[in-house]
Amino acid sequence: MTASPAPACDLSVTRSPTTVRIDYDPFDVIASPPGDLDLELSNASDTACEVVLLFTDLADAPIPKLFAGEAPIAFRPRETSNLRRTELTTFTYAMTIPAGGSAMAQFDVGVAEALVIPAGVYAVEMRLAVRGLDGTPLISPLPVEISVSSPARAQMNIAGAAGAYGSGASVETIDFGEAETGAVRRAYLQIRANAHSTVTFDSEHRGRLANKPLIGPPGYIGYQVALDGTDVPLDRITRLPVEPPRTLEGMSMPLIFTLGQVRGAMSGAYNDLLTISVSPD
Questions:
Q1: Domains, the chain, ordered by start
Q2: Which helix (H) or strand (E) holds 27?
Q3: Nearest to 69, CA basis, from 126, 145, 147, 127
Q4: Using one digit for the tens of pLDDT, what is the confidence trace for 86-115?
Q5: Which of these, 211, 195, 95, 92, lies nearest to 151 by C-alpha position?
Q6: 8 A C-beta contact, residue 208 and residue 223
C-alpha cells in the first residue's frame, strides 16, 4: 500500500500579522520608521504552492487605496520575501511556497507621502487574503489593523523675511544700532505644527534692554514687541495661542520690535535676552 501525496497548497499560517503600528514624524516622512507586516505560510504538500496575496477591505473587495485617517498607506515588499506585484491598481502580490517548507511575506508599511497629519492615533482595518492562482481562497482571510500614531509637534524659526517655514536666513539678534527713540526692527516668526499650539515670550529684563556697568546701578531702555499686530506684554511671561495650517510650509507672522524712550539713558551697550518658544497644546 502506497501513501497518497498530500494535496497541493495544503497551507497553514505559522506567523500571522495583527496590528501594524506606524510611528509617524509629521515633519519628516523619510525619518519615520515603517511598521512591520509579516506573514509566514507553511506548505504540507509535496508540491510547491503558488499563491496570491491580496489586501482587501472588510467585505473582501480588493482595495486600490488605503487610508488611516488622512494618511495614505503604502506597502513595500522587502527584497528577501521575493514577492512579485501582479496588479498595479490593487495591493496584489504572488509568491511561491516550497513543498514541505515555508515562506515569509514581509512588508514595510508606511505613510505614502509627506503630510502634516494632525496629532492623534488613526487606525484602519483590512484583511489579507491568500488565494490560489485561480482566485480560490486557500485559508480564511486574516484581519490586520494599520495604526498611524502622529504625536503633537510644533516647530518655529525666526527669519528676516516672510515665507514658508525654513525659508530665508535665520535671525538670532535684533540690533537697534545706535539707540533712537521709536526705532523699529522687523523679523518674522515662522511656525508649523500639527496641533493647536502656544507661543511663549520670556524677557530676562521684563521688556527692557539693560546696561550693567562695572560700577553703579544698571540703566534700562524699554522696548515693545508685537506679533502679527498683537502687542506682547513683556513684563511677565506671556503665552499666545496660534493655529498654524497643517502644512509643511506653516505660517509666517511679522514680529515687530520698537525701542522706547532713549532720552536720559546713560551711554553704553544695552541688551536683553528674549526667549521665544512654541509648544503644541
A1: 11-150 (2.60.40.10), 154-280 (2.60.40.1090)
A2: none
A3: 147
A4: 887 889 999 999 999 999 999 999 999 999
A5: 195
A6: yes
